Amino acid sequence: MMLKTSGSLFLGMCKIFNDVVFGIKDLVVGVVLNVYTWYKGLRSADRHVQIKFWLLSAIFFLTIFGYTLVKEVKDAVFVYIVGREYIWLAKILTIFMLAPLVFFYSYLVDRIRRYQLLYFYSVAFGSLGLLFAWLVGNAVYGLPNTDTSPWRIFGWLYYFFVESYSPFLVSVFWAFANSVSDPQFSKKNYSMMVAASKFAGVLASLAGVAMLGGHFIKLTDVVSYQVLMVCSSLVIFVIPIAVKVLITLVPGNMLHGYEAAYKFEKTRSNEEKKDAGSSVSLMSGLRMFMKYPYVLGIFSILFFHEVVANVLNYLKLGVAQEASSSVGEYGIFLFQVAGEVHFAGMVFSILGASFLVNRFGERICLILNPLLVGFFLFLYMAAWGSGSLGLKCFMFNVALVMIRALNYAFNYPLREALYIPTVKDVKFKSKSWIDSFGSKISKSAGSSFNGLVENFFCIGSVLFFSTYSVFFVAVVAMWTLSSYWLGNRYEKVIKNNEVIGADE
Predict the structure, then answer these.
(1) H helix intervals, 217-325
(2) Domain boundaries, the chain
(3) Rg of the Cα trace of the chain?
(4) Alpha carbon distances (Å) from 85 to 154, 164, 180, 246, 317
(5) pLDDT digits (tens, 9 = 90+) for 109-137
(6) Nearest-CA neighbor of 399 among 381, 417, 421?
(7) Interatomic CA distance for residues 128 and 150, integer angstroms
(8) What integer is the mean pLDDT of 193-219?
């Protein structure tokens, strides 16, 4: 009897091993086939289209590599200088801190060329990054001072600085890419551009873990953070060089992007240009955001994702602090999670994102994204309700990684493609409002929800669990409805060769 049981157990283990091996094989084969099919299509395209793709991918690679390094450092610095309990307040204050920067950005959009915006923000963020790298090692203002206090200004300033990366440096890259790409280029290549950026995120995460873990060279935690911050700035400084190569090698007529929008911008009369000091010019991005439901729809899909992601992200920071005994270990935990997210995003981008968009179109894919997020949230909530601590922690990590990876690999390129059939004011100014204020308001909403639930209900109680469940169902439902409308509107715009904002 015992031999029979042992034999059954052995056969069961062999079956599991066989399924895992063939599952990995199928995954690898799928990745290779998708890459080959995409590369074959790219090779058959015009030589300048190929150059444009590789250089845009290189610019995005550099942007995300530098951003990933400081993004994870930001949370560690803030928690150990100011305190985790003030993160919700920092997200709210970020909204107000960004206000003058958005007005300044709108001012620049009217006065300098698209690629010059990338020059300016790359140099600005790289330079400020070096300044913060020096200050973080200061015995009074930086990490060597182990007294955690909300009155330590450096922690707040660095948090605001890194939070502005996404609405300005990352957003400016996408605004530039959208302005030089047409719908066909985005459908075929945006997923692979995202894959390149995810590879950069994986490498940056590995560098962070290796540096803080002493795998390169044994340094103190503070010096390790300084090295990572300096490396981020040096990488950012390379971006203007890559942009210069792009505009030099690719002819101007290949950088028009969506032709209907380009022709509209070219035929605008000089008297329509806003006065240099006009508040109308500075507020035009917000006005168009409020006027056109299409632009509001783009904001909605960002809003719903950010709310869900930040509800989970806040819980992640608590888990990281409990699992860490020093600021170095805390950073290692954050970089490990970031590496998992970027790796999953890279696989999604290569394996299926471009295939799904090409096969089903933007409308179906926009609806599919919230449904997939809802599925992973369901798995997490089911594990949470099971009462098993190990299962809950495992599914929490799976849900967080998969939801963030879906955003990077699937939701992000889809959302950026929606800007292509719009005028310049929407591509740059409205996008800036959405990526700055819209993103920060969304994050504040998610963080505030966490704070309210923790204040009113006992953590782990039935009411605590039920509140989160109802919240997630409501968000996913509204997200799905918004995506359905937006997908229909996008397909109609492209079919009729319309330009959103052309009636301004």
Answers:
(1) 221-236, 239-249, 259-266, 279-291, 293-322
(2) 45-251+280-495
(3) 23
(4) 17, 21, 43, 45, 10
(5) 778 887 888 899 999 999 999 999 999 88
(6) 381
(7) 22
(8) 84
Question: What is the CA angle 252-256-261, rounded to 5?
Answer: 150
Q: What span, in angstroms and rounded, lies between the C-alpha atoms of 498 and 491?
A: 10
pLDDT digits (tens, 9 = 90+) for 12-53: 545 544 544 444 555 566 556 666 666 676 676 678 888 888
Is residue 178 within 8 Å of 254, Cβ to Cβ?
A: no
pTM score, whole prediction: 0.72
**Model confidence band, residue 10 (pLDDT cutoffs 50, 70, 90):** very low
Contact in structure between 345 and 198 (CB atoms under 8 Å):
yes
Taking the C-alpha atoms of residue 156 and residue 87, their distance in angstroms, rounded to an integer, is: 10
Count CA atoms within 13 Å of residue 196 on its CB side: 16
pLDDT at position 440 is: 74
Cα separation, 155 vs 158, whole angstroms: 5
In contact, 175 and 428? CB cutoff 8 Å: yes
Mark residue 426 as left, alpha or beta (left: phi above 0; alpha: psi -120 to 50; beta: remaining): alpha
Q: Hey, is 50 helix, strand or coil?
A: helix
Look at domain 45-251+280-495 and name its CATH class. Answer: mainly alpha
- Model pLDDT, residue 112: 80
Contact 304, 438 (CB under 8 A): no
Gap between the Cα atoms of 480 and 475, Å rounded:
9
Give the integer Cα–Cα distance in Å for 362 and 419. 13
What is the band of 380 on the pLDDT scale with cuts at 50, 70, 90?
confident
In whole numbers, what is the pLDDT of the chain averaged over residues? Answer: 77
Query: How many C-beta atoms lie closer than 10 Å to residue 276's C-beta?
Result: 9
pLDDT digits (tens, 9 = 90+) for 434-490: 877 777 778 778 777 777 776 676 655 667 677 878 888 899 999 999 999 988 888
Q: Is there a contact between 186 and 417 (Cβ–Cβ < 8 Å)? A: yes
Q: What is the pLDDT of residue 258?
A: 56
Is residue 281 within 8 A of residue 108, CB to CB? The reply is no
- Tokens 């929800």 correspond to 449
Rounded to whole angstroms, the Cα distance separating 250 from 47 reads 9
- Residue 503 in tokens: 């009636």
List Cβ neighbours of 244 (8 Å cut-off, separation of 6 or more).
115
Burial (CB < 10 A; 0-12, 13-18, 19+), residue 312, is buried
Quote the tokens at residue 81.
């200088």
- List the structure tokens of 144: 């060597």
Residue 335 CA to its chain's centroid (Å): 15
User: 183-212 vs 2-43: helix axis angle to the nearest 10?
Assistant: 130
